[in-house]
Amino acid sequence: MIKQLTRAWLPPALLALLLSSVFILPRQEQLMESSISPDLPVNDELPGWQGNKIQESEVERTSLAADTRFSKAQYTRLRRVFWEKETPPVEVSIVYSGSDMNSSIHRPERCLPSQGHVNLQTSTSELRLADGRTLTLTRLTSRVPLPNRDDGLTLNFISYYVFIGHGTMHHTHIGRTLQDMYDRVTRGYVQRWAYFQANSYWAPELNLTEEETDKRVRALISELLPNQINWREM
Predict the structure, then answer these.
(1) What pLDDT was estimated at residue 136?
(2) How many CB atoms are located within 10 Å of the residue 144 CB?
C-alpha cells in the first residue's frame, strides 16, 4: 500500500518541486563587465617593449556583431644591444562581447581560416606570469601562405588565447559556455566576456625559429597580464 502511494505521488511531487524552483532562482540577469582592461599600454609604458595601437581589420569587423568592441596593439621588443636582431612584433587583441555573446566572440579556429590561416593545431599550455601567477591558455599554431610572392614564403603563426569574464577565465570555448550558463541560472547575471589573444609569426626564410618566437610571445603575455587584469575580482 505504501509503495503504491509513493509511486502515485512521487512524480507530481517532483514536478511541483521543479516548478517551484523558479521562485528561488534569480529573476533578473545583470550584466557584469569583464575583468580585463581595454587600455593596452602604448609607447614605452610596458618596460622593454614599444607598443602601438592598431585598428581591427575589415574581416574582424564584418564577421562579428556590430556592438563588439576591440582593443588591439602591436609590441616590438626593444633591443638590449645594437647587434641584436630585430624581431617581428607581437600582436595583442582583446575582443569584448556585445549584447549577443554568440555573435560577438568565438573560437579563433572558427574565424582564422577566413583570414588565410591553414593547418590549425591546438593544445593546452601553462604559462607563469611575471607576478608568479600561473595561467592555462590554449596554444594555437597555423600557417599563412603568401601567394603573391615568387619565393612561396609561408608565415607560421603561434597564438595564445584565453576567455576572461567577470571574476573567472577559461581557455576553451566549451568551458566559457558552461560557465556562462551556470552564472545565468544560479547567480542571475550575464558576463561580458573578453577574448584575449597574443600572436606572432616565424619562418626559416626570415631567419626566425618557432622556439624563439614562442618564447617572445610568452614573455609579452607574462609581462602584460599582471597589470591588465583586475585580479581582486578573480
Answers:
(1) 97
(2) 18
Is the model more confident about 171 or about 109?
171
One-letter amino acid for residue 121 of the chain: Q
Q: In terms of C-beta density within 10 A (0-12 exposed, 13-18 middle, 19 or more buried), how is residue 175 classed? A: middle
User: Where in the chain are the domains?
Assistant: 32-233
Predicted TM-score (pTM) above 0.90: no
* Cell 603568401 found at: 146
- Residues 112 and 121: their CA atoms lie apart, in Å, by 12
Residue tagged 570555448 (cell numbers):
173
CA distance 110 to 93: 16
Q: Kindly list the distances between the CA atom of residue 49 and the CA atoms of 54, 96, 125, 207, in Å, as whole numbers in the listed order.
A: 15, 24, 24, 21
Maximal C-alpha separation, the chain: 92
Query: On the CB side of 136, how many CA atoms lie within 13 Å of its CA?
Result: 8
| Contacts of 152 by beta carbon, 8 Å cutoff, 6+ apart | 145, 146
The helix/strand/coil state of 105 is coil
Other Cβ atoms closer than 10 A to 201:
22
* Residue 110 pLDDT grade (very low, low, confident, very high; cuts 50, 70, 90): confident
Under DSSP, is residue 86 helix (H, G, I), strand (E, B) or coil? coil
* CA 20 to centroid of chain Cα atoms: 38
